[in-house]
Amino acid sequence: MKKLSDYTFLTDENVDPQLISFLREIGLDVFDVKENKLFGSSDETLLELAFKNNKVIITLDSDFGTLAYKKKKDFIGIIFLKPGHFTSSYHIDSLKAVLFANPSVENPFIITAEWSKTGIKIRLRNSIKIL
Fold this sequence. Notes:
The chain is of the alpha/beta class.
């Protein structure tokens, strides 16, 4: 098993640049879809790219989990920040909570971080078997 902090990350096009800056400021390796001119790429393409490069996807979009389960696509890990389309400060707080917890993970995994007024709920699905 590895710690979440041992991974590198791919940020989906819906991730705010402030969140990407935050990740880099704390020393994480981030490949951003927008910066690499992959804006508009399909989620399937991005999931494949992340898998081939051993990266964990950070997204506000539940479609990656759907691809993993329903289409049985290979993946390393997905961090799904909920609810989507809030200001970046909510997503930064959610990701800080996940990174502070720095869970041990086994591929493939999905982490959901859900922000609410009462706190941030983190769920980890480790070593997911796609049948």
